Amino acid sequence: MDKIFTENxxxxxxxxxxxxxxFDDMVxxxxxxxxxxxxxxxxxxxxxxxxxxxxxxxxxxxxxxLVEIASKAEFPLNxxxxxxxxxxxxxxxxxxxxxxxxxxxxxxxxxxVDFPKSDVVIANxxxxxxxxxxxxxxxxxxxxxxxxxGVFIVSEKVMVEHKELDFKMIQYYLANKKKQGYSDFEIAKxxxxxxxxxxxxxEAENRAMFLNAGFSCVETLFRWVNFASFIVMKG
Length: 235
What we know:
The protein is α/β, with parallel strands linked by helices. It has a single domain, classed as Vaccinia Virus protein VP39 (Rossmann fold). The protein has helices spanning 17-30, 34-47, 64-72, 86-98, 132-145, 163-179, 184-194, 203-212, and strands at residues 54-58, 78-83, 104-107, 118-124, 146-159, 201-202, 217-224, 227-233. Strands 1, 2, 3, 4, 5, 6, 7 and 8 form an 8-stranded mixed sheet that branches. Helix 1 (17-30) packs across helix 4 and helix 2 packs across helix 3. It is globular. The chain starts with 16 loop residues before the first helix and ends with a strand. Residues 2-6 have low confidence and may be disordered.
């Protein structure tokens, strides 16, 4: 169970072995409707895949998205997952092996690793950790690796441009975290550790970034307060 921020961390947040060990519990309690979003993303992903299609999961962490897709697929797929935390990928491999599923897991920086030509790319709560100056380059890289009529499915924490409403949404979200069992101390310490590490864009900023990369269509697939999922189409 996630107890990382019951102590007083002296560093910025990072996806180290300590976080990897509690990651599944952390995200399920920190991201509203996390499991439902995974299911939704998997269902829409499979609508755009056929036998032997290639799917790329960026920031795959402990492999939850890959397992969700592989468990629902009724035909063979070429699954790839990239993450820069080896400890996360070890857990992902153990999960896949337990379910007798196969995927190509790559440990590396998604800004540097070559992407396979893909039919669908997924990035759930990943872009928000990429520095703004590098984020547009990454989205362009995703666009370039997609086959014609390829699909990009992305989930992100989002900010609201109306400052007062943004504040109210954040407070509502923090209250939701308390309902999940986090203390005020844990919530405050995690926010402090994530300062300048997680940098959210607004829904409009995300939409503009996708369109500027060349994508032809951006639709909101799911939204809860300050979290959103988008389905982005390559024309």
